[in-house]
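A reminder before we start the practical. When you read a complex entry, don't treat the lines as separate problems. The point of joint prediction is that each chain is placed relative to the others, so the output describes one connected object in space. Small molecules and nucleic acid strands, if listed, are placed in the same frame. In the example below there are two entries. Take a minute to note the order of the lines before looking further.
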Amino acid sequence: MAKEDRLLLEMSGISKSFSGVRVLDDVSFDLRPSEIHVLAGENGAGKTTLIKILSGAHTEYQGKIFLEGKRIRLRSPQDATSLGISAIHQDLAVVDSMRVLDNLFLGREKTRHRVWMDFRSQKARARKILEPLGISLDLEAPLCDYPISVRQMVEVAKALASKARILIMDEPTSALNETEADRLFSLILRLKQQGCAIVYISHRLEEIFRIADRITVLRDGRLVGTVRAEDLSPEELIRWMVGREIRQQFPERRAHPGEERLRLEEFFIPDPSGKKSYVVEDVSLRLRAGEILGLAGLRGSGKSELLNGLFGTYGKNVQGRAFLDNKPFRVLSPRHSIEQGLALQTNDRKGTGLVPGLSVAWNIILPSLGNYSPHGWVQEKKTDSAARKKIEEFDIKVSSPDQEVGTLSGGNQQKVVLAKWLQTQPKVLLLDEPTLGVDVGAKHEIYHLMNNLTAKGLAILLVTSELPELLAMSDRLLVLHRGRVQAELSREEATQENVIRSAMGEGSIEREK
Amino acid sequence: MMDVRDIFRSSFARALAALLFVVLIGALFNAEGAFFRWDTHRDMLRHISVFGILACGMTLVIITAGIDLSVGSLVGFSAVLFSILSLQKAWSPWLAIPACLAAGFLCGLTSGSLVARFRIQPFIATLAMMVFARGLAKWVSGGKKISMAVLQPDGTYKYTEAPPVFDVVNAKILGENIAVVTLIFLACVFLCWVILSKMRWGRYLYAVGGNEEASRLSGVPVAATKLFAYGTSGLFAAVAGICQAAQELQGDPEAGAAYELTAIAIVVIGGTSLMGGRGSIGLTFVGAMTIGTLEKILSINAVGEASRLMLTGAIIVGAVLFQMARKR
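Here is the predicted structure of the whole assembly.
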């Protein structure tokens, strides 16, 4: 066991403050060779800060870092890379317009006489890296031809090309479907066999217990503990993370559906990218007040596109009939949909959900600003008190309503998104991945919120890639497959097996090809 | 206790710091005390006003993450148009001024619709408008300066009186201390402040610049917001053109060349981000003071044009770096 006790990396007594607020307090963390070490904790627990210190992005901190027993001090991300520490962030650091090959060696190009690109030896090295990982890619193809999962693997390979011994992965599966995630896990296991140490951050319990050798839990910037994965149960892990008991992962759901709110008949949505003809074909559905209708399906099944198409994200170019409160509803634009009582929480907070540089208050008011600005004059007192009320109601943790929304943690940002849509007093709420990248505590709050809202008569159309969440929160399920309704399942019929079977297309008669 | 660095974190304080930096240079190179005389600064205010007016419109456009390169040419076009209408056609200023403002507004709307409806990049769309409007100015004027000497059908020149509106715009009030153009500049600053901080459209400008797609999905009329920004910029360019014509007592089709660059420099040195979504008109006002003072320092020290241009470039970089250093 002597070999296992040898530490590859040791961080001890790490503390860090941001403008007087202590975000890390005397945290210790270590890594052994050939180990997958999961770093767990709620949003705001200090995980990201810790790995930013480790990857050289934060250079001011207290405490010591040892690499193979030698004290090191990282002054930049380049420092970290040259020592074999590479971080793969949620926002991938790849250049989509460049070739796979160029991306693999970006910043550390192989050259002759320091000037001339040496593509031949780059290619040879690229094959040497990719082959043992079981990845076959066209090195000459632009990276944007590949899906996001492949781009992520390219980033892993890029780290290996720079001889990384320590890989830091921050929620790498958040943008992947299950098959893609499986492929990533086998890649991670292969890296482990090759002697890499991996720091892995994730909010998904099943995935943590699937790959972790050891788990370190942080809470409020402090170390709760480090244990071997087999010595910790999922319930204990949650308790460690939140510091309080959460008995059930999901609150009980009691639905009392009322009048019909939304009805779609033979709804078709053309592909916005123009690649295939339709992303949603011939979908009919009914949604009643107080009801949560879940949309299940694999990535690309058209569930997210159905929400966006209905909301008007792709413009008025949809076919079919829609009725809101039994009155014909025409899809024109997001603005029109909002006026008619629809609200869409998109699956991309930073890209389409929030204006990160604006304040929390401005973001909350943005969709309903028209109601607060007669003749164009903004009624500041009213917007201010409305925003404050929502911040209180949703328990959004801010220093003031004027704080920039981009500086909040993921869970708080998501609450701002929900707050801004509920401020418009919608009749139908379209939720696309409401708990994506959100910690356990905030997830719980969002589930309770959904229950409270439906109890007051709101109708919710729910899309989520987390199956347990979908099953627990939906009153009924529509399973989509290739843009069509494959099955409609009641709450009782909706088991994981049933849903996956339909989502993968079983029972459909495939006449094409 | 408040950290001193926190004060510098506010972008307004950083803009003031850049101004202070330039004022210190002035105090150092004071040209035998000329820098400490009030009339030096009075001249500076008057001189910078036309650029400041352009910078006001530019601020709105830059907040939407755009840029407007056409304002310099629009100054030339509206200066010519105003001179033709007032001097040659002898229109009443009550007609001539609105006509010029409408023309500038329409040109701005045209660039705006190229950006908003046809999704041409702002740089390209307004570059095209810059070239087009300069051509328009030369076409309308026949390539000649429009002055008080009006060519008669028989080939002789008749000298007209400049209408009173020229004197009004060119006047200085309060004991010759404040120029009317400066007052117009201040009025533009005030108008932009009202738009940006009190009106719905102001919030839409910030939202579109901060995240266009999120704004669209939140029901913000993105295209109309951009039209508003570029239209207002064109309108302010026309205001500046009228002031320019009144100051020069003529409409020069070459007037305003490269003014857009000074206007952008004013906005940027104030601290409004070219990335969009951030900034304010107060910053632009401070920026105008910074650039104005800088140019004045160089002129009272009788720095030759070649060195003046090179020094201006270097000092702009210095001031912007100075701001960024405080940010970290």
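Discuss with your neighbour: The mean pLDDT of chain B is 88. What might explain this?
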